[in-house]
Amino acid sequence: MPKDSATSAPTRRALVSHLIRTRIAGDVATSRENNLDHYRELAEGNRYYWFGLELGNRWTDRADVLDLMAERCGVVPDAGHRIGQDTIDPELTVDALDRMAVVLRKAVDNRSRVLLATGHPAGLYAVHHALAAALRAAGCTLVTPADHLYGDGGEIRHLAAVSMLHRAGGLVHTHSPDPMREILAALERDGQAPPDLVVADHGWAGYAGGRGIDTVGFADCNDPALFVGEAEGSLLVTVPLDDNVPPHHYAPMTAYLLAAAGLPQPA
């Protein structure tokens, strides 16, 4: 499959092969050690790893977190596997894309107000950018932050209606829920309703879902919070994937998602 095949939706089988070949799923770059460290941090109550969700004392057993991640993300279920390679099941990735497509189609049918945001501007922005363009073309209203909003030590900006964090002259990676908190607070101050749907990742998605907003998100296998949020009903869908491969590798996945939702492909 050509690396820039953004305008031709692959079949499910072809997409699974592509996900494995580009390591968006299958044998991913994130190590088992890193995954287990993050599961432990979430279970021990480190809010940095909660992504803006309020998990209380419901996920204090690391074994429960691992079981959930094996079920919903496809990491190795064996608790004795402590070092080396870990995995994301590409079939689970495509299953989640299909569920996300249903949510996107409903948003279009309802002419919803949609907010898109990413904490991975060097990777997932490519996905959000295409979704934003397709949703706008299909009649949705895209919600963008007001000027001069700040969170997590940076300024919240939007590019092609995708909200991101700007710091020290560049768009930066962030897990923080603070930027989404600031956007929603600003909307409330201005007398505007919250968005009908949020499409995001990291703390952008976690905080929105925790506020009761319909939210779909993307998450890596070392980011358990959004999978926990989906299990508890705070998020509608969490798509498991490596969230920071070269952005052109996401083009077939994005094309598949748009086609499944009945949305126009990017030009």
Automatic annotation (TrEMBL):
SUPFAM superfamilies: Tryptophan synthase beta subunit-like PLP-dependent enzymes. This is Phosphatase. Pfam families: Phosphatase. One of its GO terms (biological process) is alpha-amino acid metabolic process. InterPro entries: Phosphatase_SCO2771, TrpB-like_PALP_sf.
